[in-house]
Amino acid sequence: MGGKRQQWSRGAVVAVPLGDGIHSYAQMLDFPEYAFFDCRTNDELPTADIIAQPVLFRLWVTVSAHSTGRWKKVGPAEVSVTLQKPVLRYNQDPLQPEDIRLTFDGANETLGTVEDCEGLECAAVWEAEHVEDRLRSHFAGIPCEWTLSMRPVVAAPTKAKAPKAKKKH
C-alpha cells in the first residue's frame, strides 16, 4: 500500500484509502495533526471541494501514514482559520484513572474530570490503520473499537481504610 516517500507539508490534502477503491480525505495541519473530512468517494475530488466538507475529527497520526506514501498527497490547500486553532484533548492514566489531564499540545496540562472529556479526543498518536478503521466505522454508522477503547472511565471509589486498633499492653 506504500508509495513514493513524502515529506510533511502543512496544508497538503491526502487521500486516505478505505478499501475497495474507496477513500476519504484529510489535511495536514501542524505536525503530526490531521483534520479528517466527512467525505467518502471513489472519485478524485478537487482540493477546494474536499476542504469545503465538514470536519469529522482531528487526530495526531504516526509519521509513517504520509512518509511511506500510504496516504498520498493530492494537492495543497489553505488551512482554514478554524483548523488553525488548537483543540483541547485529554489523557487518563490507566493505573490511576482519577488522574485526567487536559492539554492542547500534549505537554502543558491541567487537571480534568471524566465530564470535561465529553466530546474531546484522547491525546494519542494514532496508527494509520486505526484511523482508516475509524473512518470505515463512521461511514458504516457503527462504533469504532479504537475510539471506544480510549474513552475515559470513571475511577472506582477508593475504600477508606479503617483505623488500626491500638494494641493493649
Structure description:
The chain starts with 12 loop residues before the first strand and ends in a 20-residue tail after the last helix. It is elongated and about 85 Å long. The longest helix is centred in the C-terminal third of the chain and has 13 residues, at 128-140. The model has no long low-confidence stretch (mean pLDDT 90). It is built from five helices and ten strands. With 169 residues, it is an alpha+beta fold. Strands 5-1-2-3-4-10 form a six-stranded mixed sheet.
Can you summarize this structure?
With 169 residues, the chain is an alpha+beta fold.
What does the oligomeric state look like here?
A: single chain
Major sheet: 6 strands, mixed
**Overall average pLDDT:** 90
Binned, the helix content reads 10-25%
Unreliable stretches covering 5 or more consecutive residues: none
The Rg value, from CA coordinates, equals: 20 Å
Structural class: alpha+beta
Q: Which term fits the overall shape? A: elongated
What series of H and E elements makes up the topology? EEEHEHEHEEEEEHH
Tally the helices: what do you get? 5
